[in-house]
Automatic annotation (TrEMBL):
The chain crosses the membrane at residues 45-64, 76-97. It is found in: Mitochondrion membrane. Residues 1-25 are annotated as: Disordered. Residues 17-108 form the HIG1 domain. One of its GO terms (cellular component) is mitochondrial membrane. Its main location: mitochondrion. Keywords: Membrane, Mitochondrion, Transmembrane, Transmembrane helix. Coiled coil: none annotated. It comes from Thecamonas trahens ATCC 50062. InterPro entries: Hypoxia_induced_domain (IPR007667), RCF1 (IPR050355). This is HIG1 domain-containing protein. It holds the Pfam family HIG_1_N. Gene3D superfamilies: 6.10.140.1320. The keyword Membrane applies.
Length: 125
């Protein structure tokens, strides 16, 4: 039969309750996400160009309906220029955000592997 000392090494010597571990609180994650209006106000170029395109299109269609063909033609040409500017702004914004230089709220180079995240004590993966 096993002696008392053999069993004692597997049982705790003191039966004190330890305080539960406090979870890591990420205050940034608790913050409310930006609303649609917040995003428009932070980056107004693309929404402004989209609105301009829609207004020029509407004015061109209205002038065509009322029989002013030359004005309608000029407005449709202006619409093409506004659409080109809108697409250019979208591509430029996507390019800068993709390389981490835009105002996207993420850190630069966010797609690179961060070895410190794996080595930190907060990683419970």
């Amino acid at each position: 039969m096993a002696s008392e000392s053999e069993y004692s090494k597997f049982t705790p010597r003191e039966n004190k309750r330890k305080a539960p571990l406090q979870p890591h609180v990420d205050l940034d994650a608790m913050r409310a996400p930006p609303t649609f209006w917040d995003r428009i106000m932070s980056q107004p170029l693309v929404p402004g160009l989209m609105l301009t395109t829609a207004l020029v299109l509407g004015a061109g269609m209205w002038s065509f309906k009322t029989g002013r063909a030359q004005l309608s033609q000029n407005l449709m040409r202006a619409r093409v220029v506004a659409q080109f500017a809108t697409i250019g702004a979208l591509v430029a914004g996507s390019y800068t955000i993709g390389f981490g230089t835009g105002d996207s709220g993420d850190e630069a180079g966010r797609n690179e592997f961060d070895a410190k995240a794996v080595e930190s004590d907060d990683y419970h993966g």
